[in-house]
Amino acid sequence: MQIKQGFKGERMLSLPDDILRKYSRHPLVKPLFIRKLGFFPKVKYHYVQKDLGTDYCMLIYCVGGKGWCEIDNHKRMNIEANQFIILPAHVPYRFGADEENPWSIYWIHFEGEIAKEFNLNPLNVHTILPDKTSRLQDRLDMFEEIYSNFSMAYTRDYMIHSSMCLYHFLSSFLHVEAFRYHRLPSRKEQSFSAQVIHYMQENIGNNLSLNELAGHFQYSTSHFSSLFMKETGYSPINYYIQLKIRKACQYIELSNLKLFEISEKVGFDEPTYFTRIFTKVIGMSPSEYRKREKSTF
Asked: What is the greatest pairwise CA distance in the chain?
């Protein structure tokens, strides 16, 4: 079974070809611009096949689950969480989600005079793992900025801004060390809890267990919890949940995402469980919080 579109929780934006042709003549847009972009969460049976290739390049960034890709009849490459691939224009390819553990992906179709300059080796899948200097969440925040501006792209200034942001976004994949340089620790090393909190923030969209957190820092769960509690006054999981809910509040305040979409973006598989935890932490339900925040403007 292979379904090409129509997934629960999907977000997708595009512009008509005549509008794109008009914008593609603008000097700030024609070097590099977006045709279409979106986010597909846990897209079971997702499948795309382009026997003749396309006129655009495509970035696929996997943030959860698994998928695969075949380019120009070469061997199949597996793609997992924290991995990406950039598919070049005019090359046949096909890709799809793993049937047992389908991927969640951010994706962008882009083209322009210099689009090909952003192609890494298309026969390799590239990995960006979270660590104390990674900026995974910053990258996703950039996507949201691009997405929100592209949603207004019938107005020229928003289209130009989305194109300008695309340079930075793609560069964050191509020049990972340079992108991370902003986050390099100062001469005074980060505290243990600061490193853990950063790792939690980089995994807001996942659902890490205490074993996984402790294992990443190579401690037993008891010693890890004791060290974190000593520095913060909170248990690791409680603090992790607080971060998730804080991020959910930001999405509620600053985006038009539906509540079940926000639930998925902060790592909750079940919207009802998200609502219960949100209510416990904030003192009101997500829908009540959204209503209150809208009434303050």
From this structure: 61
- 3-state helix vs strand vs coil in the chain, percent to 5: 45, 20, 35
- For the chain, state the CA radius of gyration: 20
Predicted structure pTM score: 0.72
- Distance, CA of 50 to CA of 233 (rounded, Å): 54
Write out the DSSP string of 6-42: --TT-EEEE--HHHHHHHTTSTTTTTSEEEEEEEESS
Give the E-state strand segments of 83-185 in sequence order: 83-87, 93-97, 104-111, 126-127
pLDDT in tens, 230-257: 999 999 999 999 999 999 998 998 788 8
Model pLDDT for residues 62-117, shown as the tens digit of each residue:
998 999 999 987 889 999 999 999 999 999 999 999 999 999 999 999 999 999 99
- The Cα 12–Cα 126 span in angstroms is 24
CA distance 151 to 148: 5
pLDDT value at residue 2: 36
Six-digit token string for 10: 């999907």
The per-residue pLDDT for range 148-167, each reduced to its tens digit, is 999 998 899 999 999 999 99
Q: State both tokens at 2.
A: 């292979």
Burial code of 41-54, b = ≥16 C-beta within 10 A, e = fewer?
bbbbebebeeeeeb
Q: Which helix (H) or strand (E) holds 71?
A: strand 66-71
Distance CA 96, CA 104 (A): 11
